[in-house]
Each structure stands twice: as structure tokens, then as C-alpha cells.
Amino acid sequence: MYDYIKGVVTRITPEYIVMEQGGIGYQLNTPNPYAFHQSEELVQVFTHLQVREDAHVLFGFTSLEQRELFRKLIQVSGIGPKGALAIVGSGTPNAVVTAIEQEDEKFLVKFPGVGKKTARQMILDLKGKLDQFLENIDLKSAEDELPLFGVNAYQHELDEAMLALAALGYSERELEKVTKILADDENLTTTEAYMKQALKLLLKQQ
Questions:
Q1: How far apart are alpha carbons 115 and 113 in whole angstroms?
Q2: Separation CA 183–CA 194 (nearest Å)
Q3: Among 73, 94, 154, 204, which one is least packed by beta carbons within 10 Å?
Q4: CATH of the domain at 17
Q5: Contact between residue 29 and residue 81 where contact means Cβ atoms under 8 Å apart
Q6: What is the DSSP string of 127-196?
């Protein structure tokens, strides 16, 4: 029904953004809300509408490729929109596609809500059908910024990232394992940067 919305981002939360267009604020669930920035600049977001008995839910993506990968994933039995967002939001679609092609269940079960049965189903349903996504998708990178001196100079940004990751389905126990590492990394200065690094660490955990 909606292919994309072009408007201004008026609110950013750990789970969704609000985009205003034509006097209407659209709530869009996204893989990484902090890939967006609240400003008066017009941005284009590709959308997917999920129709349920109790609600109509809009999902937003920074690229067409992100949205199409999301749509492929939600067709797999056992993967709902939340789980698909976590996979797309990992920022490592090439690794996901490679894992599916190589039948690497050990890698796939690292995502929230993906057990061995669902990983096997992903391989059965998607192997050989995702080549178009290789080298095409990545979350936007924040511009490099110089870190400030002092402990926890970016604690607010780190806290926001943890809330966003929790919204994607990562457990408190999983997040506790990476929080200390992130807090000690002086190269991380934005919420988006914390999220991207946290996702890399989470996917490396055994």
C-alpha cells in the first residue's frame, strides 16, 4: 500500500521513529532508529505495512534492499517482524546471506528468537534466493567525531543503544556481556556507533 514516505523525522525512540508528512506523523518501526536524525531535512524511508486484526503496523527502512531482505525473512516460518528487524539491524547482511548459503546454523542462532529449528527453516526457505543482497546493504555510518575526555562521556548514547537492542529482543544477560567493552571504547561517540559495535560483539559470542 505504501512504498515509501518522504518527510521529516520529528521523534526518535529506541523502537521507532516518527516521520511527519502532510501534517500526519507516521510511527515507523525500524531496525536501527538511530540511523536517522531529527531535523527539518526531508528524508525518504521505504516502508512495509503489516495488517493485523488489532493494528496496522508500519516498518521503515533506509534502503530498498533492507526492506526486501526484511520481507524475505518474515516469510520464513518462525520469524516474525521483530526477529527480522534484529537480523536486518545487525548491519551484517552479507554475513547472514553467507551463513544461509553455507548452512551455518551456529551463526544464525545468535540472533534473538532464532533457535536451531528456525535456523534450519531459514536455510531451507532462503538458500539460493538471497544473492541479490550481497554487498548491497549496510546501516548508515555516523560521521567520525573526536571523543571527549573523562569517564562515561557518552553514557547517554550508550544507554540509548542498549534500550534499542533490548527492543530488538536481546536479553539483559547478553547486553551485560558487551556493555563494559563498549564503555571502555573511546572511539564510540554516538548511539548508532554503539549499536553497530554491540551487534558485532553479540554476533561473535558463542
A1: 6
A2: 9
A3: 204
A4: 2.40.50.140
A5: yes
A6: TTS-GGGTTT--PPPPPP-PPPSSTTTTHHHHHHHHHHHHHHT--HHHHHHHHHHHHT-TT--SHHHHHH
Amino acid identity for residue 151 in this structure: V
pTM over 0.85: no
Identify any residues that bridge with 17 across adjacent strands, giving them in sequence order. 12, 28
Q: What is the pLDDT of residues 116-170, one digit of tens each?
A: 999 999 999 999 888 776 655 444 443 433 333 334 567 888 989 999 998 888 8
Give me the domain span that covers residue 79: 64-133
d(CA 100, CA 19): 34
Question: What's the distance, Cα to Cα, between the start and end of the chain in Å?
Answer: 41
When divided into structural domains, the chain yields a total of: 3
Q: What is the pLDDT of residues 167-177, one digit of tens each?
A: 888 888 889 88
Same domain, 53 and 74: no
